[in-house]
Amino acid sequence: MKTKLSILISSTLLMGGCMAQPKNENNIKSENSIGKELFISKCTMCHSATMPQNSKERDTLIAPAIFGIMNHMRMEFGSDKKAMSIFMKDYIMNPSKEKALCQQEKINKFGLMPSQKDALTPKELSDIVDYLTNM
Ligand code: HEC
Question: What domains are defined for the chain?
Answer without folding.
Answer: 29-133 (1.10.760.10)
